[in-house]
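Revision sheet: structure tokens.
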Amino acid sequence: MKPASLTDEQWALLKQYRFQKWNPSSEGGTDAMLLFDEGEMVRYLEGRFSLMGAHDLKTAGSLFMKRYAFVAALGMLAATFWNRKLNLSPDNLVLVDHVNENGLWLPKVCLKDDEAGEFTSTSEKEDFIQSLFSDHLDKIIGVLKHSAKLPNLILWENVAVYLFWIYENDAFVTGKTIHDRKERDFAQLLSDENSHWFGMYNKNPLNRYYTEKERVEGLEDEIRVRKTCCFSYRLENGEQFRCKTCPQTCKVKRMVHESN
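Predicted:
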């Protein structure tokens, strides 16, 4: 690993998705490491019911995982498209509450140590990926599974949808070399041979969600319908926040289409 840094343009892109450098003098926040304790996670979620528009731990926990999934998505964006390793260990992250103009709870993820390394070997990148998922995302999923009584299937799909978006978005591709690296990294992330990257799994926990996109009545583009519901519809005024890939509504639309 070589010492390196991100450009101003790269930081600007990360900031668009709520990732930024930590400024302790101007922002409060919650150390991510605290949330690896089930009791602390419950207190954190319950303390944000009003900000989220949630009324129960399951809904709040699922929404939290959708937001926290960007740790994985942007970590892999930097690794694949920029060949950079961000310090995404839990003790380096601080979550700062933020609600946007539409009433969505979209916490910022702030990095205390904002230096980056440059990968110089395949093994370095693989070690980073395993640390990111097995030692971090899988652990927080385990906490939510027990504290919010959420199944792994929902929590991993909340991660998968954003990872798929990163790798299916050509806006981040800047040439054939990056395109080829993207295709290779994405295939490896979906491979059962690399299930150990994600924790104690015999099957890759992301692969089951990578299905063909399909036409759904009322939507212009083909979509990949979720296998599980993330409970966004249970938020206050939740219908406006319901995912367009929601398996509940998409199933109904398919049935209507097939009967016509």
